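Hi support team,

I'm opening this ticket because the web form for multi-chain structure prediction keeps timing out on my end. I have pasted the exact lines I submitted so you can reproduce it. The total is 392 residues across two entries, so I didn't expect it to be a heavy job. Is there a limit I'm missing, or should I split the entries? Thanks in advance, R.K.
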Amino acid sequence: MADLNSLDVLIQALRRLPGVGVKSASRMAFHLLQHDRPGALALSRALQVAADQMRHCERCHTFTQADICATCLDPRRDASKLCVVETPADQSALERTGAYHGLYFVLMGKLSPLDGIGPKDIGLKGLFDRACDGTVQEVILATNFTAEGEATAHVISEGLKSRGLRLTRLARGVPVGSELEYVDLGTIAHALLDRR
Amino acid sequence: MADLNSLDVLIQALRRLPGVGVKSASRMAFHLLQHDRPGALALSRALQVAADQMRHCERCHTFTQADICATCLDPRRDASKLCVVETPADQSALERTGAYHGLYFVLMGKLSPLDGIGPKDIGLKGLFDRACDGTVQEVILATNFTAEGEATAHVISEGLKSRGLRLTRLARGVPVGSELEYVDLGTIAHALLDRR
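Hello R.K., no limit was hit. The queue was backed up. Here is the completed structure from your submission:
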């Protein structure tokens, strides 16, 4: 068998990636060493730089290398709309639609009482301060449609409802391209309720 | 959206891993930055060290940090048996069985004429020299049971058959734990032929 030490260390390190077990990690390690050493070094540098330089935007909490992220600084953005998402990945999905031109607030988590994650841990105070800065007129709740995401949206709407803001939630409904026959009943029920 | 630059560079670098597309790469990057920065730095170091230090054993061509790997140097190994495998991952699978105590020769590839990979590219000359060193008495062909693996085994057996060595191939047969009803016919036919 190939020597232990640095190969094993690499396999163990790759296993820390989400969704990567020991088999995938071995395959990745062997691939990089056998076919793509420049790729291994590029990944090494990229990890180092990102872990060193990435921090949170002071306004929206997303990842950025500057104090304030490019989205928050963009003057073409509609500052009267604030879209609340759980993670930068969710924000990125919304951005890729090209259908939203307001600003964001990234919670970097969600309420999850079972895991001991309460309102303080996801910085709801910061969100409430931001939403009540006088510029924001509409808060769009775009947390996920999971139990935790719904609970998070509920707590935020409770916290903001007396502040004179317009509070909206992403529409629940039938996914584009799908056939009713195969859509789950809860989704169809919501699509009926929210028909327009 | 989160700033480009070092986050995007990281996502692109992660995409060079086998089996990782842009969605998985984003998830990995966000996970490391959000929840496991020590993991990101550990992976960065492990990649750097492995890419710098890993080279091929002079005797068996597997990955090692020394000139000659620990397996080749182990005096308890039976040097009269030489098992030919395609990759260190295959070698590792054989080692984990605990059923083999001979030495290895790792081709680091397989014949693949369609990809322009011929006998010279996978170092068959080195294998032939090694097999005819006077110590080796049996060569066990453990290349994969794919078209390329079978072709590789065939070429090796042709090259070695006049040298007075015992040439064997891993048995083809019904996998342990499986039911005949669900095993493919080619495998059952081989299991019949190779019955003992």
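A quick check on our side: Chain A has a mean pLDDT of 90. Let us know if the file doesn't open in your viewer.
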